[in-house]
Amino acid sequence: MSLNNPETAQRLLDAWKAIREGTLKFPPSLQSHADELLAAPLTATGLVDTKGISRETVLMATSFGAAMSVQRQEALKEKAHKSITGANEVQVKLFALFSSFFSALTGRSVDLINDVAEIKQRLMWRVKYQPDVFAGSVNRVAEELGEFYNCHSTNIYQHAKTFGGMRLVTGGQRQFGPSALNAVRITGLYADTQLIPDPIYPFISSDLNLNAVHLQLAIQLFHILQLRPLVDAQLPVPAVFVFPSFEEVLERNDAHTKLGLEELAIRLISPLCRGQIQSLEELVDYSNKQETAFLDALMPSGLFIPPGGKLGIQLSAAEAASQYLKELEGIRSPLILDQMKRVSTGPLLLNGVLERIRPQYHLFENSSELGAQALLSQPVHWHYFEKIAQANARDLRSKNVISDQALRTLHAIQDDSLSWLANIPVKTLAQLILNNEHRWLREELNKYTSQLASTGPIDTNEMIKEVSHGLASLVQRQRKSLKDIELKYAPKKAAVLTGSIMGAGLVASAVMLPLLSPFLAVGVPTVALAGAASGALIGFGKEKIGEVVEKRHAGQSMLGVLATTRPI
């Protein structure tokens, strides 16, 4: 039995925790084994350190841990069985709870809030002038959301595995912010389903060591709720599907996750170190005791990029540490931030790298578990994603889900030059997807990029050029279509007006003889002339309505939306 085996490590950890919590008691004859296990420390990853534990105690503890694992699985099955509900209905309920939570925090509906500054202003006012109402309403919705997660979270995750088509899973970051939101809106024009890790679940399930936690929660709710029209549409193939990723829970309790994160860190960072690094403890120790050598290798490697930092900008170690801590001001709790400020530069920047690769690890895991293509929203996240893929000898692409051409196209449409695509309203996006316009656009863009894909490895910059050219050509096609509609109706409108004017003249001639009218004092019947004029207007109006209807229909298509949204 290998002590590095995730299953063994998991059972040991379960038994260790159960003894400490008093939920597992050994018989008196085996108490010595319980004492030995309880005395064992935890490693840097949070697993039981087995160096000083006898093999008998390990065997005994893993046996108890296995029994506890069976009980836990049975409990999960029972909970999943009780929560059998349609996936769309569950998503609608989840977003309704998100909306209630946001209103409890700010006192207003999300539709009436303009930006993050207003969120902060309203939340602070509510805390100051309505503290009891604020606490009561927030706690009430938090409890309701907690019960919802307890009942449905496992089933939601299982259902996320069932989607077909072009399915993507987002990630690479802790939060769902503006960049993630824009990426979802843009990608929705091309993909079938986007699986989004629930950004609210961690607030309910874990202590995130955040400063101003209610404000940060409200900001997350504000951004994720922008996608509600896509959820409320209850599309046959959901455009977005929010699922709990369980990341914090897994990092606390799951041996596979703990060992996986450690292995990833060693593979990615140990090449920067002199000598053999076999554990996270050794990595931390090296960054501290061999700080100069570690930092000299780290800074040019591109592995440390501070929050808010950009690619291609190399900082000194001191500058990097300063920017790292500055970006965390107001985000991390004061206690955690003070601890970080007391850490020397080597271990501090190592922690920064670990914080970068942590969400990437979970993205790879979700991609594998859900059978979906991983997708990121920022160049920095793509940078780490590619480095981790190289370190693990893994392909960036899920080959059974997406072609290399399609993946490069998705990457291209997230380029800053095409950021205008995110200006398409979410309600409009929902209507486009309902009409399968996203699949049409996918096919059209493939026509523009297929030649590039057939020549060999695809260069990202070349793909961006082709996608931009394709979109510009499609917009030009739409504008020509609108011009053709105008030209189509122009002769008809002219004919109506000309014919009606001539008709009015004939009426006048038939009633009034111009030569005799001065003598007979006969005037042109106003009713007849009015009727002729009215006929002209009605005829013209019908043709104009026809033109407007055709233009409106064209404007509601994918081409029309792109033409309206794209800057001139």
Written account of the structure:
The chain has 568 residues and is an all-alpha fold. The protein folds into four domains: 6-82, no CATH class; 87-165 and 190-251, no CATH class; 252-467, no CATH class; 478-565. It contains 25 helices and four strands. The protein has helices at 6-21, 31-39, 55-82, 87-106, 116-129, 131-159, 178-187, 201-205, 213-224, 228-232, 247-253, 255-269, 280-289, 291-298, 317-328, 334-341, 345-370, 379-391, 404-413, 426-434, 437-454, 460-511, 517-520, 526-555, 558-565, and strands at 167-170, 193-197, 240-243, 373-375. A four-stranded parallel β-sheet has the order 3-2-1-4, with helices on both faces. Helix 4 runs antiparallel to helix 6 (131-159). The longest helix has 52 residues, at 460-511. The protein is globular. 32% of the residues are buried. The model is unreliable at 501-529 and 545-551 (pLDDT under 50).
Number of domains: 4
Based on secondary structure, the structural category is mainly alpha
Going across the major beta sheet, what is the strand order?
3-2-1-4
From the alpha carbons, calculate the radius of gyration and give it in angstroms: 32 Å
What's the average pLDDT?
A: 82
Order of helices and strands: HHHHHHEHEHHHEHHHHHHHEHHHHHHHH
Main beta-sheet annotation: 4 strands, parallel
The level of helicity is: 55-70%
How far is the first residue's CA from the last residue's CA?
A: 67 Å
Shape: globular
Q: Strand percentage, roughly?
A: under 5%
How many strand units?
4
Helical run tally: 25
* Unreliable runs: 501-529, 545-551
